[in-house]
Structures are given as structure tokens and as C-alpha cells.
Amino acid sequence: MAILNSNMCEFISNSADQTRRLGMRLGSLMGIETLICLSGNLGAGKTTFVQGLAAGWGSTDQVTSPTYVLVNQYERLTGGTLYHLDAYRISNSFEAEELDLDLMLDNGVLVIEWPERIDDVLAVNRLWINLEYVSEDKRRFVFKPVGKYYEDLSAAFRKRSFGGL
Predict the structure, then answer these.
(1) CA–CA gap between residue 18 and residue 12 (Å, rounded)
(2) Which of 33, 62, 99, 159 is spaced 20 to 30 A from 82 at the CA atom?
(3) pTM (2 decimals)?
(4) How does DSSP classify residue 76?
(5) What φ, ψ does residue 148 adopt, rounded to 5°?
């Protein structure tokens, strides 16, 4: 278990609904050009969390896992796209570069599951979230912001989720 620094945040979710609500709180704070990296094993709650992110961001689209299509797109009624990428089946960085991640970020929010598989082509500044399966109902989240925007985003998320921490 890692030691958390002052910019990091840890949260234990006790249900899928709580995981979605956590995502909704973060999603409501995200602006265009936001990169969210979700790292965790199968069953850790990544797609459930993205369901909340998309809803909080303003999309009414149904969120599903993009495992076999690589990228799903969710539109926001007020404009913009949330790109949901599953990098599990991407073999190398060259394949990731062909997806034009920069264009996705320029036009919306990019949420990546299994980001460690393509980390060398991702922007340094991002919000990295480690998700861990604890038990059937519990998931552990550790938020690691890198860069001023993501530190501010994480601080606003903590305040909205937990009060004046």
C-alpha cells in the first residue's frame, strides 16, 4: 500500500451505486481536455465508475465497456464528447498513437481503462485513479493528480465529496 501525499485522496466505496455517485461528483467538475486514467484489475469497478463520470459530466448516453470496440463516445447535451478507451487489447504504443489521443482530448474528456499499457504515449499531466477490488461490495480508490489543473480538480472533488478537507 502506497503512502498518500497531500494531493492524493483515498476512498472506499461500499456499493456499485456509491461508485457511480463518486464518479458523478468528479464528472460534474471535469472540463474539456481532461485525462482520467483508471488502473485496476477486472472487476475493480472501472466501467461502473465511468457510468457515474459520464452522467455527472452531462451525458445521457448508456455507458458500456469498450473492451471489444476500443473506444466508446458519450455526447454531452451542451456539447463535447467523453471518450472512453479500453487499452487492454492494445499491443503497443504505436497502436495507441494511431487512435489520435490528442484529438480526443482536444474535443472532450478522455477516460482510459488499463492506461499502464500505453503510459509512454500519455500526457504527463493527468488524474490517475487506482481501483482495487476489496470484497464483493467494496472497492478502494486512490486518486493521484499530476499537474496543477488535476491538483485543483482533485481538491474540488475532495471538497464536494467529503466537505472542507
Answers:
(1) 9
(2) 159
(3) 0.91
(4) B
(5) -60, -45
Q: What is the pLDDT of residues 93-145, one digit of tens each?
A: 888 888 888 889 888 999 999 999 999 899 899 999 999 999 999 999 999 99
Q: What is residue 85's three-state secondary structure?
A: strand
Q: Burial-class residue 147 by CB neighbours within 10 Å (0-12, 13-18, 19+).
A: middle
The answer for 114, left when phi > 0, alpha when psi is -120 to 50, beta otherwise, is left
Strand partners, 73: 83
Highest mean pLDDT among 6-10, 16-20, 61-65: 16-20
The fraction of the chain above a pLDDT of 90, given in percent, is: 64
Q: What does the domain layout of the chain look like in residue ranges?
A: 9-99+115-124+132-141+152-162
CATH 3.40.50.150 matches 9-99+115-124+132-141+152-162: no
